[in-house]
């Protein structure tokens, strides 16, 4: 899957994403669900486990930048 096709996908935080942290999200992709290392799209945002997020950038192979979806 190329970088652009991951942008806009929804995922759920499984390990806190925030400044100075390497978080983790699970994203439904390629007919299954995969875990990715995650960083906040805005450097100051802290996103807690369970929060639904949107992928805004993908750095292959397993890193994404995310932001909270639905104003959560």
Describe the structure.
A five-stranded mixed beta barrel has the order 1-2-3-5-4. The protein starts with a helix and ends with a strand. The mean pLDDT is 92. The longest helix has 4 residues, at 3-6. It has 72 residues and is mainly β. The protein has one helix and five strands; from the N terminus they run αβββββ.
Q: Over all CA atoms, what is the radius of gyration?
A: 11 Å
Beta-sheet strand percentage?
over 45%
Overall outline: globular
Distance between the termini: 28 Å
Unreliable stretches (pLDDT < 50, length at least 5) are: none
Major sheet summary line: 5 strands, mixed, barrel
Question: What is the number of helical segments per DSSP (H or I, 4+ residues)?
Answer: 1
**Helical content class:** under 10%
**Helix-strand pattern, N to C?**
HEEEEE
Order of strands, main sheet, comes to 1-2-3-5-4
Number of strands: 5
What structural category do the secondary elements indicate?
mainly beta
Output mean pLDDT: 92
Give the assembly state of these chains: single chain
What secondary-structure arrangement, pairings included, does this model have?
Elements lengths: L2 H4 L3 E6 L7 E7 L2 E9 L11 E8 L3 E6 L4
Brief account:
This protein is mainly beta. A hairpin with a 3-residue loop joins strand 4 and strand 5.
């Amino acid at each position: 899957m190329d970088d652009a096709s991951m942008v806009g996908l929804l995922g759920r935080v499984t390990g806190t994403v925030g400044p100075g942290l390497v978080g983790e999200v699970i994203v439904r992709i390629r007919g299954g669900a995969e875990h990715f290392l995650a960083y906040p799209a805005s450097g100051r945002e802290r996103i807690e486990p369970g929060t639904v997020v949107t992928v805004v950038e993908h750095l292959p192979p397993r890193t994404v930048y995310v932001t909270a979806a639905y104003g959560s």
